[in-house]
Amino acid sequence: MKDILFKADDSTRRQFMRMTAGSTLGVGLLSQAMTEDVFAAAGATEEGARKRPTARNVIYLYMSGGMTHIDTFDPKPGSEVGGPVKAIPTKADGVFISEYLPGIAQHMDKAAIVRSLTSTQGAHAQGNYYMHTSYSPRGTIKHPGLGAWIQKLDGKTNRTLPAAVRVGGGGSGGAGFMESKFAPLQLGNPSEGLRNSKLLGGLSDREFDDRLALVNAFNKKFRETYNQKDVRAQKDMYEDAVKLMRSQDLQAFDLSKEDSKIREAYGDNNFGQGALLARRLLENDVRFVEVNLGGWDTHQNNFVSVPQRTATLDQAVSTLLTDLERRGMLEETIVVIATEFGRTPRINQNDGRDHFPKAFSGFIAGGGVKGGTVYGKTDERAENVVEGKLQVPDFNATIAYGLGLPLDKVITSPSGRPFTIAHKGRPVTELFG
Amino acid sequence: MSGSKESKRFAIAVSFPGEHRDFVKEIVEFLAAELGRDRIFYDEWYEAELLGTSGDLKLTACYSEQGEFIVPFFSEFYEKPWCGLEWDTIREILFEHRNDDMVVPVRMDNTEIPGWKKIDFGILLRERSAKEIADLFLEVYFLRHPNEKSKVEPEVAPTSSNERKIAPSKIVRHAPDHLYGRDTELDLLDTIWENRQGKHIHSLIAWGGAGKTALVAKWMTDRMSAKDWPGVERYFDWSFYSQGSREASQTSSDAFFDAALPRRHPPPPRPDLPRPRGVGQSPRPHQKTRILATPRGTRRRRRGRQDLVSPPIPGISPTFPFFLLKIRAIFLSSQCLRNRDNWQLRAVFCWNPQKSMKSLPFFVSAILLAAIATAFSYPVESRKIDALVEANYAKFDITPNPPSSDEIFLRRAYLDIIGRIPTKAEADAWLSVDAPGKRSKLVDYLMTTEGFTSHFYNYWADILRLKTRTQGGTGAAYIQWVKDAITSNKPYDQFVREMVTADGMVWDNGAVGYYLRDAGMPLDNMSNTSQIFLGTQLVCAQCHDHPFDRWSQMDYYQMAAFTYGVETRINPQQMLDLDDAMKRQEGRRTTSRNMRRALNDILEPLSYGTRETERNLKLPHDYQYDNAAPEDVVKPGVLFGSDVRVGRSDSSRDEYAEWLASPDNPRFTTVIVNRLWKKVMGVGLIEPIDDFKDSTVASNPELMKYLEEQIKRLQYDQRAFIRLLYNTKTYQRQATGGDVPTDEPYHFPGPILKRMSAEQLWDSVVTLSIPEPDKRTVNNGGRYNIEKMKALADSLRERSPASIVKQAKEIADVMDDYDEKSSKIREKLLAAQEADDTERVTGLRKDLNDLNRDRNKLIASINNSAGTGNMMESEMSMFEIRAKEREEAEEKRRLAEAKKSGKKIQKPTDTWKGFGRHLVRASHLPSPAPNGHFLREFGQSDRETIENASTDASVAQALMLLNSNISKDVLNKKSPLMQAVSNAKTQGEKQDAIFYSIYSRPPTDNERELFDLQLDLKGDEGYEAVIYALLNTSEFSFVQ
Hints:
The complex is a heterodimer of chains A (433) and B (1040). Chain A is of the alpha/beta class. Chain A has helices spanning 10-19, 32-43, 102-105, 124-133, 146-154, 205-225, 229-245, 260-266, 270-283, 302-326, 392-402; strands at residues 57-63, 87-89, 96-98, 111-118, 164-167, 185-187, 288-293, 333-339, 342-343, 355-356, 360-366, 373-375, 377-378, 385-387, 390-391, 411-412, 418-419. Chain A is built from eleven helices and 17 strands. In chain A, the strands form five sheets. In chain A, strands 1, 4, 5, 6, 7, 8, 11, 12 and 15 form a nine-stranded mixed beta sheet that branches. Chain A has a two-stranded antiparallel ribbon with strand order 2-3. A two-stranded antiparallel ribbon of chain A has the order 9-10. The two termini of chain A are 32 Å apart. In chain B, 49% of the residues lie in helices and 6% in strands. In chain B, the strands form four sheets. Chain B has a five-stranded parallel beta sheet with strand order 2-1-3-4-5, with helices on both faces. In chain B, strands 6-8-9-7 form a four-stranded mixed beta sheet, sandwiched between helices. A three-stranded antiparallel beta sheet of chain B has the order 10-12-11. In chain B, helix 27 (593-603) packs across helix 34 (801-834). The longest helix of chain B has 34 residues, at 801-834. Chain B is elongated. Chain B starts with 9 loop residues before the first strand and ends with a strand. At the A-B interface, helix 6, helix 7 and helix 10 of A face helix 23, strand 13, helix 34, helix 38 and helix 42 of B.
């Protein structure tokens, strides 16, 4: 579909128009990714780990700063390392999680926990990059994040909206070496809607139309003189922008359309509202939404700060899972909770925990995941992985596997170097039923 | 298209006896093919006009009044009655207008023609064909009418004045066929001529008969005209006689003064400034000089036919005072031409000291024999570059684009050279000047402005991946270093050498940032080095032999071994040798965590830099090739070119830098030349610009070779080099209209159309929105922080280890105390949380905060008393206080001065009062700009990989221009744009103001109609609507 919000690619546009002349969808709605890769895939054999997808979309909840595993999904109650935090039973038999996550506990029957994650990166930026891209940061290339990969390998489905959106966060996980059109659309405040999609104050629809007509009139001569690709692309980009401004899809960004009770239920904060926005976007065929929750870097006062974070997290995630399920969307949506690393089992002098990439936890729900699964295990101090060690690329491969994406499909960077979606990670297939 | 107002109807009029008709007809056909039939007078073509009575008069008119020059074909048949009639006319012309030099005869045989003087040269037929004769005529014609050439090959500057270049007329006649033994002198003339920096007036002094005139004449005909008078805009020559010379008149010297002296006006206003009132109107100095130069006597003398037959009296000539005046005039005019209007007058005078001894005071006695003067308007090298580009036009059948209009050139020059559109005032000032060489002058001027540094910095920031936000602010120090290097125009090779050999603290040497940028990734750093400076992509060879190139993994490791020893993490404790002091203080070496933290904080300013170590690079554990074993130590070695002798100096890095940035390195020079060519013209001579292979050849190898020679000659002065490119005709042509295929070489019929870079677009919006956009900076702590960190680092290095350890100990004690107290409060806090006692929780939180604040205060006061107040707290440090004091003192001084002089001066900040703080040029914003910033939406590089900027279109860009507050900034009542509109009086002027501000040109009739319609419909709001619309057009965001 046409990459509104992204590069307006002329050749794609012409190509598509030829192919779909008479289509009711209008002009220029098919992305290059769709034309190239879908057709390529159609002819390709089912090599590698590709299977029938159990999900098509991802809500990726990223805990920025390094979420403590011990105080969330890998509790060690009553031990020296566990601190004051207790474990509570969940809706899945025999699965206990932190008392800080009572809401999520009620959804454990739809979710799997991975307790054996391990990373090679102990600093925030590097760890964040690694988690988002499956590659360690390099000075010579920038790797794409999952959102870009999904689009590149599987195309997008909405005509006007981008395939990937990110609320908060930033830095790694963009388009990387891929074309900028694959970059996720970045939103700051989820309640503000899409930036610059509303008319300037004081401008009526009619005046706006008048001005557009004027733009076209002034453009006429220049466009005749310079009939070339970049100039035509600019013309398309304006047409697409106006189309977007008038599109129904734009309302996906408008949280005021939601019942105020629903908004409250998600939590009156950017993360909660971001999760709600994620649901709305998925309803409008966006494929990948990342929502960031910061403040996990608890070097000090871990047991004061963490409950504040988990309260936000728990409320948003439990509401989201309920909401998705009620709308029948959970089956096709993978909800992930990820972070760059865990935190030291040892509690420091400041009552805090420091960076700990050696062992940490992740969470995957919905999208065909076998509910109540706990994968992997740490020792009693939550210090070493003793069972089912999972590298970061393996974790990402698992998500890709759920989406049915070809893990071994090589995409070549413009500099001629080969890359795959999860850097040769091996998916944990047993998470899926 | 004749450049001359007085150009006559015919370029060439032929006169011949009928016997030669066939031959002459052949010649005129050739001439007509080049000049057009309507420019050749050949009787058969104008039969209708000549028919009737008084054919003789008509014919006479064709020769004497309507011909630029006249060609009689002399032969034994010529003296027939009919021809005699023509010849009478021609002879009349010869006498009447001898100085105009209109007659060039062809001598078909050796017949003597009465009235034709031996000193006048004609064309001897010899064995030449009609074509050869025709070509010779064309050559003569074009030599005299250089502007006429534009018919075949358009001249660059359509606005240059109508004066024509003045042809050499007299001196060349003195050129002997052979001049023996004067090669050295000829070379010397070449040298002094080509050296622009040297003197402008040169004298040849020799006794009479030594051959001065012959030398100059020979040089002019053989050397200069053979080189097509490179770079010459106007050319003059004249000769005076000395005693005994048969040269009678002043020939074209008066023409020289006529052409040169009008330039004695004050120089045209700088293009950035509106023309000051009253300047440029006073003709006084000019008239004065002219009066000096043309005393009445001379004029009278020149009128008569007398001079032709009667040479002047030998001895002390009555014309002597005239000569002196003339010489003075030449010096005066050379003074006024120099450095003005971008012209340089170069003259060679020949002097004869002989007479001086006899009759006149020494200084003024020299007699001018012959002189030529030339004014250069653009560099010889640029002209040569054009010639090399044009060679490819012929080879590949390319039709060059026509020259760009002044308006388009102006806008392009501003955007390309200083990175923003011109303001209306700047556009007005430059467009209204009518002077030859004004484009060149604009280029030169722009290259000296702050805007140039700003724009060139953006260019390098993208290549070097400059980031402001890095740990400890090291990025800012590196950025400042790059900016300083650009401002001081550091030679490129030195720039590169300083980066790759950088060592020490980043505060002392910002170039260290080159290594800190890839801290902990020495292998990647080497990949980047080879990509940026050698255009060679090694990164594949990092893990295995390069699959598409000849580089092996061993090659890669050998290169990397040069810089592998560069340690990017510095341990200041080790550096300052604190161990002993620690032992004394603590009684042991290992210390508490708080002690370590306190030390780290104090020593932070010393921890950013590089250090050369002995660290060896080993092959990876999975090395798979036969030429070495895994984990073998690798010795440094270069990829190509002469081998580096490691161990010759203290550091292998110095050797490596010498090799890398040497003119002998086979890729170093090519890469930078190609980069800069692409920057100017839009496409490289080699594409891609950073992936050279052994098989890579430039699309124009001769041009590439010449450019490489030039940058070497200029000693890698980037600014001087791109100046040559901006001065070419090639650059000054119109941009190519249609699609430029990316898969075949581009032969530069003109530059290519480009969408503005994110920075150009943003800076242009800023230009429309605030006054003096180049001058505004923001204090984002950049430079300021660097100075502070440097001062801290310096003071630490001066202090004794004991005092530093003592300070750390004091801080650690405070922290210990805090830890103890705070953990007690935290326990209570947890208990309160358990009990859900919110009131108590709030109280305890407050206690915790207070405790925290107290701790920070204590630490700050310890630091301040130790003179390193900084890192931990926000109290104003002594450096800030000092800076503030400086500012206040400066302000006071200014106010006092203003009071004294009774002038009201504006405070420096007043210029931008009321304009949003965000409106500042891109180079002053953090690099990269934050996500979602205008710059990023329009494709500014994220500074992650080399040259990662993009000009791809995106819908977010359209939304930004359509719906964001950007248009509000532009439409602010105080913006330069809106000021220009409100200052304009009539509706038409207001429309002009808007078009000049945004497009740098006036509206077309069509656009004016559209505009009028808006104003009719919406009244004054129509202006706003049009501005909004123009900002959203392609013409605004593209560089034509």
